[in-house]
Fold:
Amino acid sequence: MFDDFFLISFVPILTGLFSALSCTLVGNILVLRKQAMLSDTISHVVLPGIVISFLIFGNLGSHFMLVGAAIAGLTAVGTIAVLRTYTSMDNSAAMATTLSVFFAAGVLMIELTAGGNVHLDVEHALYGNLESLIWIDGESLMSVFDSVSRQTIPVELTRAIIGFVLIASVMFVYWRFLIVSTFDHTFAEISGVPVGVVSAGVALAATNAAVISFDAVGSIIVIAMFVCPPAAARVLTHSLRDQVWLSLLFSSLSAVLGYAVAGYVPILLGFETSISAAGTIATLSGVILAGAIFYGKRQRSYDFLDGHQT
Amino acid sequence: MSADAISATELSVDYDGVTAIQDVDFTVRAEKLTAIVGPNGAGKSTLIKALLGLIPNRNGTISCFGTSPKQYRKNISYVPQRAQIDWEFPANVFDVVAMGLYGELGLLRRFSSAHKDRVQSALTDVDMADFAARQISQLSGGQQQRVFLARSIVQDAELILLDEPFGGIDSKSEAVIVDILRRQKQHGKSIVAVHHDLSTVKDYFDDVILLNKTVTAFGPINDVFTKSNIEKTYGVSNLDFLTGRS
Structure:
């Protein structure tokens, strides 16, 4: 059963992993900023962006597609700002409105182009398509070190790794500004922190994470990777550093275990086919969150009995 | 030093499209504790924001030690209302005070042991040295305010602006905070605070600005904080209980 691991599973596992890690890194900041909904909005809004780029350039692998998605993401952030300024909507309502209208437009566009030679279907956009990332020349661990075999590694994995490195390094460099502007916006502005740039950067990072994850886990499930691991970690610790590390651990667990469970457990149980990897990953992240809440609550009630809780 | 810390001339400021401050002139003396006092909706917080250069003036000018608030910002420290802060944020007391150094450190300069000492000494100044590792969610209101004062001390700014530093704080903590502010004044700092409680203005502050969209009066407490001026600012009479004793 594990003979064709490098052919079938190697790339999907890593793609899922780096997608999940990217989303979780940005998610830590979004949860602290009480903007978790932004990840949901952006991940849905990139759909019309991707479709439009696809229609123009006719190629899903095109890097123009990423640019299109990024433009759509930033347009959405602008739309949210406009709705909040000129209507009485609060932040969540503005995000939800933007999400559904943009996403609906994306679905319509896909349907309208379905007659053509478009291999972008709604189901993949919604639920991702991890299982399709087959590495034709992936035979063994040695293939990773073979430059010829490496050429057939699906572009989705390369994209996920570059996206993750980009997000992680930008967050590392801007960490102080991120934290101070999230905790105390006015104070940050007076201290000389470019708060507008930081906010736009957070939105851009969320867009980046959503776009690279789009192929892997789809637009609906991606929010689980943004929110569940940081929220679970937040319940268990009061230290921001611990929260980030713990969330990355939960995220990795969901991604790797989720893929393994989806691919192998049903077959071990005697079923004919495996189940959706993306769905299993998201479900697992939810299970971890539930576990964290349960464990966290129990800890807190013990503290209370001991009189430590104030 | 006899210079003015702040001077405003013919200042008008809009907030959310509504005139919040109309054509005011005042000065704030350097190295004094000055209160901005007025009824709800008088434009006190708007004035602080204008002094910080966060919202533009519709008309008139503000100068902080001779320059515009935006240019002077590096020398201004701001203490927000406690209610504006998410105290569940995962940070401890030390982390929050260290944020006072971020403007100076920028993004990549290392947080050295000298910086650490500055944070510790600021915490000692506000008598919170033992709480450095305490989660901010587990502090009382007065302690939270003292942490913000330590963050302000660590910035070593010339001008300190506080938005309701005594809001929701018990009287014992108030006394501690007034003490800290007085010591900062002795170190040459100029301090301006929005203040709500008319009964303590005389005890806590040197100067006062009486504000209700326009400035009714400003200057040393003893000259300005009179029954008639207060009544004019609040638009009511029978405030004898506030100024009668003293």
About this structure: Chain B has a mean pLDDT of 89. The longest strand of chain B covers residues 4-15. Residues 4-84+158-243 of chain B form a domain with the Rossmann fold fold (CATH 3.40.50.300). The two ends of chain B are 29 Å apart (CA to CA).
